[in-house]
Specification:
Largest sheet: 5 strands, parallel
Strand order of the largest sheet: 3-2-1-4-7
């Protein structure tokens, strides 16, 4: 079977929690460096789409990433508000095959870890 997994916000360590045959990495940085993935792409997921086709992945993961995606963002060049977190969830849905899996791990309220990093802009609760 040739299963594909995408790890978004992978940084220097792409993870493959579902043991897919092929591992793809996606991060804001332009280069994968020595990251061991079958394919690497770069995108700013606060404003860009996931650069893969519809239904391409069997699974997607986001380790310590979702808390960095803003819930709302005003882009003066577009003259409108965007909802990056909602747009990202729609993008994950788009690139997943039917029945695909999402694994996300993030510090959540009321944990102190949710607030110690100033780049955390999206506070998620257990509910």
């Amino acid at each position: 079977m040739n299963t594909r997994h995408l790890d978004i916000g992978c940084g220097g360590r792409a993870r493959n929690p579902y043991k897919a045959d092929r591992l793809y990495g996606l991060d804001i940085t332009a280069e994968a460096g020595d990251l061991r993935v079958d394919e690497y792409a770069s995108a700013n997921l606060a404003v860009d789409r996931i650069p893969f086709g519809d239904g391409f992945f069997d699974s997607v993961s986001a380790y310590d990433f979702l808390e960095h995606v803003p819930r709302s963002l005003y882009l003066p060049g577009e003259g409108r508000m965007r909802l990056p977190f909602v747009e990202l969830m729609n993008e994950i849905w788009r690139v997943l095959k039917g029945g695909g899996l999402l694994y996300a791990s993030t510090p959540c309220y009321p944990s102190q870890e949710a607030f110690v990093d100033p780049t955390h802009v999206n506070y998620i609760t257990e509910r």
